[in-house]
TrEMBL record:
DNA-binding region: 25-44
Key words, A-Z: DNA-binding
Domain of life per record: Bacteria
KW DNA-binding (keyword) present: yes
Protein name, as recorded: TetR family transcriptional regulator
Domain HTH tetR-type: 2-62
Organism from which the protein derives: Acetobacterium fimetarium
Amino acid sequence: MANQRENILSLATELFYEQGYNNTYFYQIADALNITKPLISYYFKSKSLLAKEVSDKFTIGNKNTIAFKLYNHYFNCIEKQYDLQLSTAIEIRLSEMLCFIDPKAARFVQESNKDNYEILFISHYKDLYKIHDRQYHLNINHKNDEISMLARGAIAATTAIRLGYLNDEFSCTMSECLDYITTVHFRFMRVDEKRIAELVKMSAEIIDAIGFEFNPYFKIE
């Protein structure tokens, strides 16, 4: 049964990428896998929740790929202590670049965000904020679960900026938009502005120096 669920996710990823969110339907997945639509609904209650799981899966996969490449081609090479903030800035910038550079990834992001609420809040971002809190002791109120509110606020804000850029609503370059989105996350974490500027600059330089590729099916390599 676990394999069936993974098969659905794998095919959904291909269809969402190749033909878009709007033109992908449960019956197409069911026919291709020789299963019933109710079986898909058993695992994924709606297309929006299926899209969220697809998004979570490729986001986490890309995160691991980026971390591995950074360790081998940057931190390990210069024998420098791992920098969580810098690694996060690079991950954020690359994830946004995927949407901006790959038209099919951009289409999925635009269409899926218009159709649902769930996809706005990728679960791993709350965990990311918790990791930063443990490492840097962020200036937040733990009694009222402010960290959850900050994580959601950052995702909502950056999603709005991403869609605004994709819809040509801003008179800025892609690089300027990437800089701002990266900045927003660290402002929500209440990081010092001077440090934020340093992270934005270094993340762009390291990405250029190492070289990353944006490949089909939402892959950063």
